[in-house]
Amino acid sequence: MKRKLYYIFLFFLALRLPRTMTQAEIKLCSLLLQEHFGEIVEKIGVHLIRTGSQPLRVIVHDTGTSPDQVKKALCVLIQHNLVIYQVHKRGVVEYEAQCSHMLRMLRYPRYIYTTKTLYSDTGELIVEELLLNGKMTMSAVVKKVADRLTETMEDGKTMDYAEVSNTFVRLADTHFVQRCPVVPATEDSDSGPPPPAPTLVINEKDMYVVPKLNLIGKGKRRRSSDEDAAGEPKAKRPKQSTDNKEPIPDDGIYWQANLDRFHQHFRDQAIVSAVANRMDQTSSEIVRTMLRMSEITTPSSAPFTQPLSSNEIFRSLPVGYNISKQVLDQYLTLLADDPLEFVGKSGDSGGGMYVINLHKALASLATATLESVVQERFGSRCARIFRLVLQKKHLEQKQVEDFAMIPAKEAKDMLYKMLSENFISLQEIPKTPDHAPSRTFYLYTVNVLSAARMLLHRCYKSIANLIERRQFETKENKRLLEKSQRVEAIIASMQATGAEAAQLQEIEEMITAPERQQLETLKRNVNKLDASEIQVDETIFLLESYIESTMKRP
Amino acid sequence: MAGNKGRGRAAYTFNIEAVGFSRGEKLPDVVLKPPPVFPDTDYKPVPLKTGEGEDYMLALKQELRETMKRMPYFIEPPEEKQDIERYSKRCMKVYKEEWIPDWRRFPREMMPRKKCKKGPKSKKEKATGQGTALTSTADVLKKIEELEKRGDGEKSDEENEEREGSKEKGKDGDDEDDEEAAEQEYDEEEQEEENDYINSYFDNGDDFGVDSDDNMDEATY
């Protein structure tokens, strides 16, 4: 019976059905969807996560939502790559949630900020627009970004479309944005009715090809008559009619942010800073050079980069770096000999062939994260025991006490604490076939992969807690927040119409001193909670990258 | 390894010292309740990272949160009617831009369907990517005013009745336009809501699983 189940399990593994999500992940997805898209989208999205692939009718029936609402929600989710659709037999279209993509919403600020550091404000806004809208045509992005940048410029100055286009092309060239799959062109003489849903395809070669557009124009400022003087949401205006007069030159060619490329960048950043921490600035620069040389040539899931010769590395070092060839070779040897094994030597030609061991590096980073968590939660002596067991792989109780030089009682206490939280596990080795406990070795060991999964699960829970607490804090002070917003609006409108300082003072005093205090506290708390979310997401990224690297076929 | 309670005291089947208790020592109490929800921690957490990048990301995060609420993708839940419509609520209402999906990329069943109308009007075919040119903005504003005048207590049944009963060409024309535009523009109007409800009422579960979804064109009301 057990064997049958095992085979069934293998079968599913081969089919690579999406794994069921843990409760913590579902909860987190629910909170994220609710914050970004509202309750209705959240309801549909969470339903799909729980139930797997479903057709429209079943979703409508099971969630008790009106078909129109369900359609709108699905459109939003599909647009943002959070739900995919597939045509099954008999023309039934089924919809499936992409839980991992939903969790990426946590990382949007990091993606946008990273682009800012690499491609400045223009690049930042391009990626922001793509993330906020899911997918867009290049012409739409360029126009929108030009308008936004123009808003921030001094009066009279505008942002040219050409400049935005250039940045867009650079982002495409470095693979930070990519083309979405397209609707295949069908001949008109197709027999039968059109399919219930298009099957979108994309050719690898076309993914980063920028269409030849001649976008000429400048950004436009919003006219001041459209805005309320208070800068509040725009005054009532008739529904916008789209500019259907001009044909869109790149109609049907949509772009999206390439999250994998960003992840590759984050991973490289993490490796470089780890080397800098462990060794020195120069070593980290060498590693950074090697990673940069491998950016496009090595797929992001590869276990190690393509071998690079010492000569090539020397030629590719950044211009300002003046180290001699011998010094470079010494550094490379040092890096290759380091027990962390970030860099490996794969041959001797060309002055020495070196690779970066990406999978090993990720494993080291994950392990370091675990060590750090143990240290901060249980203390440095516990951390010493943890590192010891990591190093020696399997240790008996007595050996732990001896090697760690910690008294028996405390050592036991610490080991059991870590055991109960699943950082450490117990391996039984029976001496006799009857597995008698008195005649069995019990060895402590650290299974890095399962400890990493456990920690990742805790991270999801942590972020869910942080979000809930933040929402609670905001809700508690809702009345006060609304009051403060109204007061600000009044002040702004009064300033615009030219009020005296005394009048403004009077309005400001509508908020009493203790209320101000309360608002200050609220702001501080919300900032802290938000910042914590961002940092926990950094840990999540490391752990997810490591776990993912173990799942790929070598 | 059945726990053989031999004569006299029960003996452990394993070496109790291996676990850390000496023989004869009092074992700790059995825990009868789940651990506390907010346990005390011995070690306080490390302070958060600070720096230019972190500050920028924080501001960005909060800004994004606000921006997303104003985007057309944020679908407001249908609000419960309040007794008195607050003036401030009307003023602070955000008018969102509409989003029209590129229907070529979506399954055909995603497109909103024409609503059931008892009038003799024939259904216009909705071509893909048809423009949303609103023929008369003035009429829309008039409609909005009417809605406001109507008050919140009465549901849209009245509006439905009025619409369906009325034979005024102009009014119907407006409604048609309004509705078509509303559908195409994904506006959250109450009439749509009410009609949807009736729509699904006709759609009983008998069809589930029997026909393929190609037969969704049964909506020939």
From TrEMBL, chain A:
<dbReference type="Pfam" id="PF20912">
    <property type="entry name" value="RPC3_helical"/>
</dbReference>
<dbReference type="GO" id="GO:0005666">
    <property type="term" value="C:RNA polymerase III complex"/>
</dbReference>
<dbReference type="GO" id="GO:0032728">
    <property type="term" value="P:positive regulation of interferon-beta production"/>
</dbReference>
<keyword id="KW-0804">Transcription</keyword>
<dbReference type="GO" id="GO:0006351">
    <property type="term" value="P:DNA-templated transcription"/>
</dbReference>
<keyword id="KW-0051">Antiviral defense</keyword>
<keyword id="KW-0732">Signal</keyword>
<comment type="subunit">
    <text>Component of the RNA polymerase III complex consisting of 17 subunits: a ten-subunit horseshoe-shaped catalytic core composed of POLR3A/RPC1, POLR3B/RPC2, POLR1C/RPAC1, POLR1D/RPAC2, POLR3K/RPC10, POLR2E/RPABC1, POLR2F/RPABC2, POLR2H/RPABC3, POLR2K/RPABC4 and POLR2L/RPABC5; a mobile stalk composed of two subunits POLR3H/RPC8 and CRCP/RPC9, protruding from the core and functioning primarily in transcription initiation; and additional subunits homologous to general transcription factors of the RNA polymerase II machinery, POLR3C/RPC3-POLR3F/RPC6-POLR3G/RPC7 heterotrimer required for transcription initiation and POLR3D/RPC4-POLR3E/RPC5 heterodimer involved in both transcription initiation and termination.</text>
</comment>
<dbReference type="GO" id="GO:0045089">
    <property type="term" value="P:positive regulation of innate immune response"/>
</dbReference>
<feature type="domain" description="RNA polymerase III Rpc82 C -terminal">
    <location>
        <begin position="166"/>
        <end position="365"/>
    </location>
</feature>
<dbReference type="InterPro" id="IPR039748">
    <property type="entry name" value="RPC3"/>
</dbReference>
<dbReference type="GO" id="GO:0005654">
    <property type="term" value="C:nucleoplasm"/>
</dbReference>
<comment type="similarity">
    <text>Belongs to the eukaryotic RPC3/POLR3C RNA polymerase subunit family.</text>
</comment>
<feature type="signal peptide">
    <location>
        <begin position="1"/>
        <end position="24"/>
    </location>
</feature>
<feature type="region of interest" description="Disordered">
    <location>
        <begin position="218"/>
        <end position="250"/>
    </location>
</feature>
<comment type="subunit">
    <text>Component of the RNA polymerase III (Pol III) complex consisting of 17 subunits.</text>
</comment>
<dbReference type="Pfam" id="PF05645">
    <property type="entry name" value="RNA_pol_Rpc82"/>
</dbReference>
<dbReference type="InterPro" id="IPR013197">
    <property type="entry name" value="RNA_pol_III_RPC82-rel_HTH"/>
</dbReference>
<dbReference type="Pfam" id="PF08221">
    <property type="entry name" value="HTH_9"/>
</dbReference>
<dbReference type="InterPro" id="IPR055207">
    <property type="entry name" value="POLR3C_WHD"/>
</dbReference>
<comment type="function">
    <text>DNA-dependent RNA polymerase catalyzes the transcription of DNA into RNA using the four ribonucleoside triphosphates as substrates. Specific core component of RNA polymerase III which synthesizes small RNAs, such as 5S rRNA and tRNAs.</text>
</comment>
<feature type="compositionally biased region" description="Basic and acidic residues">
    <location>
        <begin position="231"/>
        <end position="248"/>
    </location>
</feature>
<dbReference type="GO" id="GO:0003697">
    <property type="term" value="F:single-stranded DNA binding"/>
</dbReference>
<dbReference type="InterPro" id="IPR036388">
    <property type="entry name" value="WH-like_DNA-bd_sf"/>
</dbReference>
<comment type="function">
    <text>DNA-dependent RNA polymerase catalyzes the transcription of DNA into RNA using the four ribonucleoside triphosphates as substrates. Specific peripheric component of RNA polymerase III (Pol III) which synthesizes small non-coding RNAs including 5S rRNA, snRNAs, tRNAs and miRNAs from at least 500 distinct genomic loci. Part of POLR3C/RPC3-POLR3F/RPC6-POLR3G/RPC7 heterotrimer, coordinates the dynamics of Pol III stalk and clamp modules during the transition from apo to elongation state. Pol III plays a key role in sensing and limiting infection by intracellular bacteria and DNA viruses.</text>
</comment>
<feature type="domain" description="RNA polymerase III subunit RPC82-related helix-turn-helix">
    <location>
        <begin position="27"/>
        <end position="86"/>
    </location>
</feature>
<keyword id="KW-0539">Nucleus</keyword>
<dbReference type="InterPro" id="IPR008806">
    <property type="entry name" value="RNA_pol_III_Rpc82_C"/>
</dbReference>
<dbReference type="Pfam" id="PF22536">
    <property type="entry name" value="WHD_POLR3C"/>
</dbReference>
<dbReference type="GO" id="GO:0051607">
    <property type="term" value="P:defense response to virus"/>
</dbReference>
<protein>
    <recommendedName>
        <fullName>DNA-directed RNA polymerase III subunit RPC3</fullName>
    </recommendedName>
</protein>
<feature type="domain" description="DNA-directed RNA polymerase III subunit RPC3 winged-helix">
    <location>
        <begin position="370"/>
        <end position="446"/>
    </location>
</feature>
<keyword id="KW-0240">DNA-directed RNA polymerase</keyword>
<feature type="region of interest" description="Disordered">
    <location>
        <begin position="184"/>
        <end position="203"/>
    </location>
</feature>
